[in-house]
Amino acid sequence: MAIFSMNIAKVSKSNGKSAVNSSAYIHRERWQRSLTGEYVDYRYKMDEPIYSEMLLPKNAPLEYSDPKVLWNAVEKIETNSNALFARRIILALPLELSLSQNKQLLHDYCIEQFVDKGMCADTVIHWKEGNPHAHILLTTRPFNFY
Questions:
Q1: d(C-alpha 109, C-alpha 63), whole Å
Q2: Spatial contact of 124 and 49, defined as CB atoms under 8 Å apart
Q3: DSSP labels for the chain?
Q4: What pLDDT is stored for residue 143 in this prediction?
Q5: What's the pLDDT score for residue 146?
Q6: What average pLDDT score do residues 49-66 get?
Q7: 20 vs 4, 27, 61, 112, 129, CA distance in Å?
Q8: Cβ(122)–Cβ(67) below 8 Å
């Protein structure tokens, strides 16, 4: 039987978080933050992602299909000391569904709940043994703001 689990958190400047760091973490990659020039490296993590998809609203520029570009742009725009860069969701995926079924479930959920409302959704699936889960990183404003 599937067990539901969801964790939602803020990625904000006031709590010392970075949208670029958060996205690099879920993708398990090494990226550079444009504002500081620093590199963040999460390639050493054990549970590598097996699927990722950047979901954009219709009016989003195509260059934002690269999460490095999107999250660096968000950090550049959100300059207040209490800036909220993103919302982060970790969502358990049902073991009873196949990988392709879970991909479709995640895609449909993000389109209906977030992208159709103007948000960009950076999605990644980690298929860790006994713990398949999805990471979703969302922009906090309707896309026409950016």
A1: 23
A2: yes
A3: -----EEEEEEEGGGT--HHHHHHHHHT-EEE-TTT--EEE-TT-SS-EEEEEEE--TTS-GGGGSHHHHHHHHHHH--STT-EEEEEEEEE--TTS-HHHHHHHHHHHHHHHTGGGT--EEEEEEEETTEEEEEEEEESS-GGG-
A4: 67
A5: 45
A6: 93
A7: 28, 11, 18, 25, 27
A8: yes
